[in-house]
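Same chain as my last thread, 264 residues:
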Amino acid sequence: MIANLRKTLEENKDLGLAVLLAALSLILLILPLNLKQPLAKYTHLVTLSPFQGAAQNLKNLVATSQTNKWLRSQLEESRLQVAFAREALEQNKRLRDSLDFLERKNYVLISAEMQTIDPKRRDNAILVAVRNSAVVAVDRAVVSLYGLVGKTTNVLGNTITVELLTSPNCRVAARDQNTRALGIIRWERGQNLLLDNVPLRDSINVGDTVISSGLGGLFPVGLPIGVIEKIDIPKRGFFKRITVRPFVNFNRLDEVFILKEMED
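reply #2:
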């Protein structure tokens, strides 16, 4: 019988613990008072103290988890603030550089912020916003820090449509800054431009910078447009085929600037 009881208790540890606690309780009841207190203290240390320690550890773990969660949220917020600060510094640098560029060109600066691509002409035009007090007219040159962007074509309140150099309707009288050869900048396809109407006899070189010539009246003289990337000499015809890589990345415009002559 004792063997069966031992086997049962070994197989069922919970039952064994219950029997042990019941036996200890019974012993405490029948013991003299002078022995009850030391035995009760010992029983508490053996049976209940480990569980109390585990409960306290669990409580500390929950508190630590909550603290870590708060610290992670503070870290993410700090990272976001740093990202905003970096963007503000970059924007400030671009504005300072652009102001210096326009001071050299003797033009009033009207700053405009990129809003969206014109949904009607996705590859040809963008919509920009100017401050409410700004007075903007159509057919004004638009530049970025890197060079010529296009021209204004429509004004609706403080929202301005800018036709990019990648539009078939935006052509610029231009010249090779080095050889002074004249031509017309126009778009054909993709992001590259063509320097058209350059006679075969005119000297022009790969790597030369192309600037606006000012001969059309709309675009001021000297605005950087791009660099000559390729020159093809046709078997028939009178003009060279000159590919120009623009300085401006039309897919990454942030701020642009509308040029206005000071005497306007």
